[in-house]
Amino acid sequence: MAILEIHKISKFFGGLAANSDVSFSVEQGAIMGLIGPNGAGKTTLFNCITGYYPPSRGDILFDGQRMNGLEPDKVCMLGMVRTWQKVRPLPKLSVVDNVMVGALARTSSLKTARALAMEQLKVVRLEHRAGFLAGGLPIGERKKLEVARALATQPKLLLLDEVMGGLNPAESEEIIQLILDIKARGLTQMVIEHDMKAIMRISDRIVVLTSGEKLMEGPPQEVVSNPEVISAYLGESHA
Amino acid sequence: MANPVLKPVAGILVLGALFALPRFVDSPYALHMMILLFMSISQGQSWNILGGYAGQHSVGHAAYFGVGAYTTMMLMHAQQVAPWLGAWAGVGMVAVVALAIGSICFRLRGPYFVLASIAVAEILRLSAINLTGLTNGAEGILATDLPPFKIGATVITDFSTKVPFYHAGLALALATITITYGVQHSKLGYFLQAIREDQDAAHSLGIPISRYKNIALVLSAALTSLAGSFYGVYVGFVDPPTVLGLDVSVQIMLICIIGGMGTLWGPVLGSLVLVPLSEALRSNLITEALVKAGVVNADSRTGLFLKENLSHAHVLLYGVLVVLVILFMPDGLMGFFRKLASRRQREAV
Question: For the complex shown, is ipTM > 0.85?
């Protein structure tokens, strides 16, 4: 069953089509990879799905409900939450307080929220940093904090925007394990990633975007052996 | 304060001492200073909820202070409404003004709220000057005849001394501190701080940004209005510059900037600095001290110049103070003390 259906989404900035007629659907419990060269419109698509931009055309159906034009907070309350490519910690709050903000989406009790936040910090292995100020964390831990905070809102679909960007191989490996752990708990994920090896390992299906359009969609093996994908990434001569 | 019993006990002792102070201090001047201090704390705490916690820096809190003060005074003067009832009408008026500003400006990003807050305060000041039928214009409203405060048939006080004002001010200051504490330790406080730290991130975590900004604004404005009503009734007089002027807005902000924005005790510290400072400037205490110390001759040209001008120089000195605080203590006195404490801790380890 598809939890998220994207129907012919287009987003124009003036005359520029950042997304045009993109359609695909994400199956419940699966990991959908979203790849494409810089400027392909991956983050714009995330912004449309999560309510930061209203799409110019097309429909977004989440859990059978039409999401177009809903504000980001409503999108989150309905069960879709994102992380940010350029991390957005709440720098002057402690790590656990950051995650509590997410948890408070579903509860008004600080005690419940704190317990839930500590639980999520354990999931991302950041519980030893609970009392630290979020602004002082190194990049690897800030990325994990983003994931913990998003998980604390108890989503049905998690959208991860380049959580491995800027990480060293050991840190990336940790994040890959984390994403697979989250999948094992039954949560659906959509992942933007540049690291092809990583995206191949975690994705059930991959959508490739170039210049705002969907180039192809399929299982990882099929995608990487597709000559059009290779030429989009490496240029015509390599195809 | 590692001992968990020590803190509440110390708190109760300080409270008791503050409550009982008028029994031991007769000087009306000392009580007056304490009343000004309480009012300043109330103003600072009120601004702090919106500016410190939610990060929406209002440079027009005089609007709420002034509307509260005017409403209460007008009702008392024209309709003989007791101020402790009229103050709630002031809160209602202010809530309407605040919601009107908030619902328009909080949709926009960037400095629009700051600009609009100044504009609204100035519109209200000019209206108060020009709507002479309603506000008595630049002459202001004088209303000093307070009805006695009764509970049932018992007269609690007839306001013949400063003592009832002292207790009312203390109660108001404590109420604002308690409310701020409550905000800080609730979902509201977390959401406001999240909005301050990163609006987009907060939005993605399920926080309805505009609604929470409006809640902070109305709460902040309502408390400021109570402080305004208190001021009007205590002084017995309101006119446009003293309750609606831009320098009132600036002074309210300064309490928090100097003390530490977004902290429970920042406005208290800020008030402890600003109230004595502004009093020393206003009453020429500094010139007198310089003369007494023999630094300047009272009849020399410098002495006369200082005597003539220093009392008007508070705005200049506030400016210098803000520059110094921003350069050397960007998180205010609270931030400065915290840094000292953590340094000492590190050295101890």
Answer: yes
